[in-house]
Amino acid sequence: MAGGTPLSGGAATLAAADRVLKVVEGATAIVAGVVIFVVMWVGVAEIFLRKAFNSPLYGQLDLIEQTMATYALLTVSYCWRQAGHIRVDLVIDMFRGRARFVVELATTLAALALITAIWPGIYHFFDNAWDIGDSTINTRWPTWPSKSVPVFAFALLWLRLVLEAIGFVRLIADPDATPIAVPDRHHPIEELIDDTAVPPAGGAGHRP
After folding, report:
1. What is the model's pTM?
2. To the nearest 10°, the Cα dihedral for 38, 41, 47, 51?
3. What are the respective helix, strand and coil percentages of the chain, to the nearest 5?
4. DSSP type of residue 14
């Protein structure tokens, strides 16, 4: 539903796919948040044990190395959907309407081409770790779980980019159509004003 008007045909299918992918992206963001929270406290415990008892926490460095990909890459698709990644908008912001969507589509296709090109190499690193039984130096933990995270994370990003490209193609065909599966990007100044606005007396603040 968009503005009370039911979507139909391809738009409804695109919206359904976008909703499913959003659920997966939200779950990955939660997992990454939990992992980095745990890693933070493991680091605190290691420092405390090392300073207070001269007994460093065994495997702490290996644990950090093994989980780094989780909170560094698992949220990349979520961040892309939120337009929270680093964007170079100086040129894009010069365009409006259909021209803007054409430029956005070009950048999305460039990102899609890059992910498509590097994904086989990412999978190769995981497959190699699985085949040879690669492990960490100190604890001898297998490294394939860690190396499987980029495989999943970039596959998820690839799906997001495909949906986004379809969404921009749809907007190029009809610039007045309801945006689906494309980032709802706000201007940085507008976001700053919204975040620092004083809530009205007698009620909570409202963001348009």
Report:
1. 0.83
2. -140
3. 70, 0, 30
4. H
Residue 29 lies in a domain: yes
In a domain, 41, yes or no: yes
Question: Rounded to whole angstroms, how far apart are CA atoms 76 and 29?
Answer: 9
pLDDT tens-digit readout, 95-137? 888 999 999 999 999 999 999 999 999 999 999 999 999 999 8
Q: Residue 176: what are its φ and ψ, rounded to 5°?
A: -90, 0
In a domain, 4, yes or no: no
User: Using an 8 Å Cβ cutoff, are 136 and 189 in contact?
Assistant: no
- Reported as a single tens digit per residue, the pLDDT across 40-99 is 999 999 999 999 999 888 889 899 999 999 999 999 999 999 887 666 677 787 888 899
> Is residue 115 one of the residues assigned to a domain?
yes
* Residue range(s) defining the domain that contains residue 31: 10-184
